[in-house]
Design a protein that fits this description.
CATH architecture: 3-Layer(aba) Sandwich
CATH topology: Rossmann fold
Number of domains: 1
Distance between the termini: 13 Å
Strand order of the largest sheet: 3-2-1-4-5-6
Structural class: alpha/beta
Number of helices: 5
CATH class: Alpha Beta
Strand content: 15-25%
Largest sheet: 6 strands, mixed
Radius of gyration: 15 Å
Length: 146
């Protein structure tokens, strides 16, 4: 299965299209506001509003070798421990070998942003190259499972 941490995910449609092409069920988890997909291979899960509610739902349902699409590094760390495969919307594969430094960097940057307004809002816009990298790497990840 493929789980999408869907709130603010820029590659929902791309993930669904690739999943359907490979006959893989796609589960979209969000706090709402996302138009349901009528395809029976796509399940829409609406969770309560609140901090990390969608993350906890995904962590509670994911199984070994499921794919999770998320930009949430703590969620990625949690599901990697459960044996899931993680791909960010930018196409970066996260695994047991690289999640430690990624999580440490995320925590450091979170601390810097909370202490200094200069660091807030410095993220880059999602580009066509990011979308292309994501699609290529999702395709490779799925093929590696066959």
């Amino acid at each position: 299965m493929i789980y999408i941490d869907a709130d603010a995910c820029p590659v929902k449609n791309e993930t669904i299209n690739v999943g359907l092409r490979h006959n893989i069920k796609v589960i979209i988890v969000s706090n709402g506001g996302i138009k349901p997909n009528p395809n029976p291979m796509v399940e829409n899960i609406i969770v309560e509003s609140g901090l990390d509610v969608a993350d906890k739902w995904i962590s509670g349902h994911v199984q070994k070798l499921d794919i999770v699409v998320t930009n949430d590094i703590p969620l990625a760390s949690d599901v990697i421990k459960l044996g899931a495969l993680v791909l960010t919307p930018y196409g970066k594969k996260l695994d047991a070998g690289n999640i430690g430094p990624v999580l440490a960097t995320r925590n450091l940057m979170h601390e810097l942003r909370s202490r200094n307004n200069f660091f807030q809002g410095k993220g880059s816009a999602f580009s066509k190259k990011n979308r292309s990298d994501f699609l290529n790497n999702l395709e490779q990840l799925i093929r590696s499972l066959d």
